[in-house]
Amino acid sequence: MSALDSLLAHLPEYLAWLTTGGGGIIIWNAYRKWRDGRAQEQKEAEQAKLKEKMYGRLFWEIEARNRRRMQEYASELRALLFAHSVPPDEIPPYPDLEKVQEIYDE
User: Which residue ranges run through the membrane (predicted)?
Assistant: First the structure.
């Protein structure tokens, strides 16, 4: 008698044992815990990526807001200098600002 014949001969007993709460429940619960744990790890990884992306976007928004504030402040100072009769050639020019595309091209 081969191993396959032995397995087929006892197949109803194995199926009954697996489906009546014996090993089947244990195997099923172990599978679910493994699957849910893996899904939880993937979910946490995706949340970490999203959080990192949101912080990156927040950083760029704050930088842009600060840059606009500095530009407005510089414009007000230039207007005050003009109002107090400072010659335009004595006022330094605006600095060249980097653009995001220039950073990525490097």
Answer: 14-31
Q: What is the residue whose two structure tokens read 């899904």?
A: 39
Q: What whole-number distance in Å separates Cα of residue 103 and Cα of residue 97?
A: 11
| Cβ neighbours of 14 (radius 10 Å) | 13
In whole angstroms, give the CA distance from residue 55 to residue 63: 12
Q: Which residue has the tokens 């230039």?
A: 78
User: Radius of gyration over alpha carbons of the chain, in Å?
Assistant: 35
Tens-digit pLDDT profile for residues 42-68: 788 889 999 888 888 888 888 889 888
| Residue numbers of the domain that contains 66 | 3-105
> Number of folded domains in the chain?
1
Q: Is the pLDDT of residue 102 over 60?
A: no
Question: What pLDDT does residue 33 have?
Answer: 76
Cα 82 to chain centroid distance, Å, stands at 48
Give the integer Cα–Cα distance in Å for 29 and 3: 28
